[in-house]
Design a protein that fits this description.
Length: 268
């Protein structure tokens, strides 16, 4: 099942601060952790991302923001429930496909590919990086995020289908081995990310006591994109407001946190 939609090019405009705030309220809300991540991602993405692809778009919150910088925006999401939410949230902004990235047409090539909190769900991460590189045009950029520090691997990671977490040098090595160049890896999320992770770990322990999280890795991965997702309306606005001081505080401690964002390029 898949659905395509025409991108709304009118969103590729410059906005002053009040206009940006108003527009943000029209976009799908980000979780607090995604707000911390987007603060770094938005800085690493170029002002124009050209023809862009997001792999594992979930409910479409990040793709909606990337689309504002794109000539065309494509998003793929294999989980049926998240795909339906993305269809609604990305209407008029992106083409959305209910499939895996390798099911896209072989000839499809992109200037920018994003994959946030995806690589850790894939057992053969080296093969995934090779596949993503093949979908980039020469000189194109890959921007990804992953959970940081293997030593922090927890019950929550298992319950949401993570095979691993990444130390910065591990992710750097993976990207280098895959043939990427101009690699930049940046930790993010301190200090709020540590608090959010502690809350997730506590919730995982409580869920485990009630025999939750017993699905296989594929099932856990599919469900991970639906966990604690804010909806539109007042609740979404409150979540966004609560995340703002977390983002501001994070900027005081660059290069620290429980997540990694990486940008790398395909050679020309």
């Amino acid at each position: 099942m898949m659905m395509s939609m025409e991108a709304d090019q009118t969103l590729n405009l410059q906005f002053d601060a009040p206009q940006r705030t108003a527009l943000e309220r029209l976009l799908p809300p980000l979780t607090p952790n995604a707000s911390l991540r987007w603060d770094v991602v938005s800085r690493l993405l170029p002002e124009s991302v050209g023809n862009a692809l997001e792999i594992g778009c979930g409910r479409g919150a990040a793709a909606a923001r990337i689309a504002r910088r794109a000539e065309t925006m494509t998003a793929v999401e294999p989980d049926g429930q998240s795909f339906k939410a993305a269809q609604k949230n990305l209407r008029g902004l992106a083409q959305v496909f209910n499939c895996m990235s390798h099911e896209l047409p072989v000839a499809a090539r992109f200037d920018t590919i994003c994959a946030f909190e995806v690589l850790e769900h894939i057992e053969d991460d080296a093969a995934a990086l090779q596949e993503w590189k093949a979908k980039l045009k020469p000189g194109g950029a890959l921007v990804i995020s992953v959970p940081a520090w293997q030593a922090r691997f927890s019950l929550f990671d298992e319950m949401v289908g993570h095979f691993r977490r990444y130390d910065p040098e591990h992710l750097q090595e993976r990207l280098d081995t895959a043939g990427f160049v101009d690699i930049h890896v940046e930790p993010y999320g301190f200090p709020a990310g540590h608090v959010l992770e502690a809350c997730r770990n506590f919730a995982a322990i409580r869920m485990a006591k009630h025999d939750a999280g017993k699905a296989d890795y594929a099932g856990r991965t599919a469900a991970s994109g639906r966990v604690m997702q804010p909806g539109r309306g007042m609740m979404g606005d409150l979540v966004q407001m609560a995340a703002r001081p977390m983002v501001w505080t994070q900027r005081l401690f660059p290069g620290r946190g429980v997540g990694l964002v990486a940008r790398a390029c395909k050679p020309l």
